[in-house]
């Protein structure tokens, strides 16, 4: 190769790199503006400059493009009382597009419909199944039903997100879902074949953790841990503005921390796991041993107020194990917050007195000073909201390094 040919190739590579960098910067800036408007509706272009840190010309160009695509809408000018021409109010257009989030559980398939503005439009519950063909057919029917009902007000369905209670690798291949009785399935590939729009699938707790980052109590936090309770216990580790997935995409199985060496049997095949002590299934089993038949987190949460000493003792024990797990997490990863979601959010008031005592007794004081325990606002809607978060993230990724809420 001649020196001239080498120089030409290098210049070509440099130009391609510049184009690539420019495109990446444009996408990031678009995401900043989109999420600023989503979190701060009725903003003016001038206020978007302050919210995003972008210059006025960049904001103007991106807003014009989003408006042309039907994603941003203008309304009547703001009456600011200041001199000069009043500015139009901007917001995500009501009919910009529809997202559907779903939770695929053995006993229920729960769906939420959400506009691109992040507001929930509808919810739908259908019976679940451990039979794969039945579950997928029910999911298809539910998505079609909720999308048809909301299309007129929210626009066309553009993305679907699904949370599944199991281990999924980085490609969406299901390694194991004990509660569904499924293992070694190309689940993401099957789901993508089943729908005409893009489908995004993840572990249920990881999806719910993303919902906390985008919509919930962890908005703006770069570092937090999410613990999700349902039939089992799952989790999501959110570090540096993104979910930590580990080398194979499987990180976050917080329910299988060993709390009692050689303790109770867990569905994973091990013993002494957090899930065997703090999941709804485990608490219900302990209550039955104590002669109390309470079904569901809501009924269990209400029982201590009725002064049932046996129920209080079971919840004290579960809360103590939860607090020890929280202390281990705080000591190891030093998060800004630990967020309790799903049935743990429903049971939080009943568990937290004992949990806080165990946390204080076992956590390093210097780390406890900066960590807080928060309760998710989504309750049992955590996973369908997580599905919606997966869908929104696919449509317009949330920037890792900024928080746009005012």
Provide structural commentary.
This protein is α/β, with parallel strands linked by helices. The chain folds into three domains: 19-75, Orthogonal Bundle (Arc Repressor Mutant, subunit A); 98-211 and 385-395, Nucleotidyltransferase, domain 5; 218-376, Nucleotidyltransferase, domain 5. It is 45% helix and 20% strand. Helix 1 crosses helix 3 (56-68), helix 2 (45-52) packs across helix 3 (56-68) and helix 10 crosses helix 12 (348-362). It is globular.
In short:
With 406 residues, the chain is α/β, with parallel strands linked by helices. Helices cover 45% and strands 20% of the residues. It has helices at 3-39, 45-52, 56-68, 132-154, 187-194, 204-214, 275-278, 280-289, 297-302, 309-333, 343-346, 348-362, 365-368, 382-395, and strands at 72-77, 88-92, 98-104, 108-115, 120-127, 157-164, 167-168, 174-177, 182-185, 199-203, 224-229, 233-239, 242-244, 337-342, 372-375.
């Amino acid at each position: 190769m001649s020196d001239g040919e080498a120089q030409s190739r290098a210049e070509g590579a440099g130009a391609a790199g510049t184009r690539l960098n420019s495109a990446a910067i444009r996408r990031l800036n678009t995401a900043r503006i989109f999420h600023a408007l989503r979190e701060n509706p009725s903003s003016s272009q001038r206020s978007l400059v302050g919210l995003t840190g972008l210059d006025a010309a960049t904001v103007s160009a991106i807003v014009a493009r989003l408006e042309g695509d039907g994603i941003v809408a203008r309304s009547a000018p703001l009456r600011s009382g200041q001199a000069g021409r009043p500015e139009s109010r901007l917001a995500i257009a009501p009919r910009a597009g529809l997202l559907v989030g779903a939770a695929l559980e053995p006993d229920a398939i729960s769906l939420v419909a959400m506009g691109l503005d992040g507001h929930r439009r509808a919810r739908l519950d259908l019976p679940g199944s451990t039979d794969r063909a039945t579950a997928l057919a029910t999911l298809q029917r539910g998505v079609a039903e909720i999308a048809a009902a909301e299309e007129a007000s929210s626009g066309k369905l553009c993305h679907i997100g699904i949370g599944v209670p199991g281990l999924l690798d980085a490609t969406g291949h299901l390694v194991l879902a004990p509660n569904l009785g499924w293992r070694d399935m190309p689940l993401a590939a099957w789901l993508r074949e089943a729908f005409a729009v893009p489908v995004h699938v993840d572990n249920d707790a990881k999806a719910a953790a993303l919902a906390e980052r985008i919509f919930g109590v962890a908005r703006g936090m770069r570092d937090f841990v999410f613990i999700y309770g349902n039939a089992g216990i799952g989790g999501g580790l959110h570090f540096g503005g993104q979910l930590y997935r580990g080398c194979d995409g499987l990180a976050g199985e917080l329910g299988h921390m060993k709390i009692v060496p050689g303790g109770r049997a867990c569905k994973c095949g091990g013993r002494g796991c957090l899930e065997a002590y703090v999941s709804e299934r485990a608490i219900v089993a302990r209550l039955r041993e104590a002669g109390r038949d309470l079904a569901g987190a809501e009924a269990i949460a209400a029982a201590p107020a009725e002064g049932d000493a046996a129920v209080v003792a079971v919840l004290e024990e579960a809360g103590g194990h939860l607090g020890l797990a929280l202390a281990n997490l705080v000591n190891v990863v030093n998060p800004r917050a630990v967020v309790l979601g799903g049935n743990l959010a429903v049971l939080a008031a009943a568990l937290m007195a004992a949990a806080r005592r165990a946390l204080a007794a076992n956590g390093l004081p210097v780390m406890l000073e900066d960590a807080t325990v928060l309760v998710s606002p989504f309750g049992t809607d955590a996973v369908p909201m997580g599905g919606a978060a997966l869908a929104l993230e696919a449509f317009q990724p949330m920037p890792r390094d900024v928080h746009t809420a005012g």
